[in-house]
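Comment thread on ticket #2218

A.B. wrote:
> Attaching the input chain for the structure job we discussed in standup.
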Amino acid sequence: MTAPDQPVDALSDFADLMTHEQEFTDGQADASARRKRRRRGLIITAVCLVLVLAVTGGYIGWALTAPTNPPTVTNRTPQVPIGSAAAFATPTATASAISIAGADAYLGEGASGIWSATGTGEPLPIASITKLITALVILDASPLASADDPGPTITFDKADHDLYDAYYVLDATIAPMPTGTTMSLHDALAVMLIPSASNYAEALSSKIFGSQNAFLGATRDWLAAHGLTGTTVTEPTGISPRNTSTLTDLLAIAKLAAANPAIARIVATPSLSVPGAGAVYNTNGLLGTAGITGLKTGNLGMGTHNLLYTATLDVGAAAPLAVTGVVLGAPTRDSVNASVIAALESIRSGFHQMPVATDGQEIGSIATPWGSSATLVIDEDASIFTWSDTPIEVTVDIDTPLTYRDGTVVGSVTWTAGPNTVTAPVTIDGNIDPPTEWWRLTHPSELGFMADAGD
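C.D. wrote:
> Ran it. Output below, let me know if you need it in another format.
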């Protein structure tokens, strides 16, 4: 009864075998898949690790070498002291004026070339300053080639000699002129200008032009040619109060005279001995005082003392100043002299060295992003040459330093007053050390392109 069941059992066993085999096969497939997934995971992990290491290493390398943000430079423009205003001494006279060449940058140009003026601009009696005009007109007609050129010989006759007595009666300044006296034009001009001999002024002008009418005509032409419309000359000596001029014209006449070598040499001569005329002495008692080099005095009595003068004024600038001045209508000769000296001295004393900085003066600071700081200081004493209370301008120029060592020059301060400038270096006071590696690694926003990107 059991035999018929065997085929059924065999089929069942075969089915079980096939099932086990499939399970084995599936297990192997699952194991293989797991191994593939594990290998893929390991590969991904390795790649990620490599990338992390590469990125980390690159960041570290970049962070340790990238430039930092520049330091913050704070500077304060140093205060500049204001000089005291110069007190210019003005003469006690009817009118006065001063022109100064070489000082425009300090004093200003002034209207019509006049730096300072007092009193009226109307024509006033000029007295013997007239003789300076007479000399210029004569030399325009009969020029001397140089300061030492004697020029033509002049012979004085009896009519010329008689002028000595005529001007003596008029209480004018005179010098001997014996009949038959001969002298060079240069020497005759010297006697006319140095002691202010009126008889020489008339005699010489008549000799050169032939007559007084011809001389006066030539004088009018000369004045017109030089634009001296405010000047009137009625005779060659200045004894007449109708010989008048303005401050502006007189300063122009003074400059023409100073530019003539012969006249400039003569009027700067304190005394001279001339054959025929004898020893003569300059009426300008200020020659050689306070830098005064000329030109001509004038006097019509009490209240009409005049001086037309030039001076070379050394004030400590790069070059001396050329001063031209005039005083008209002073009460006495002494008052003229005192006022001119006071005026020149007030100009001279108005120029000075103004201290603007001291060595070690703090003007700012440098602060770095990593917390270090140092002070900015002016590295030397500084002063500037200036006039009176001329405003002083100051500029500060500070660069970002390449190094942060004590004493490193990082800029300069420049002061300007008139034509002068002075510059002093600015240095670091103190050391600033570079940032630490840790600071670099932890402050990427202060480094390289990240710092730039934030701008």
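A.B. wrote:
> Thanks. Noting for the ticket: The CA atoms of residues 72 and 231 lie 68 Å apart.
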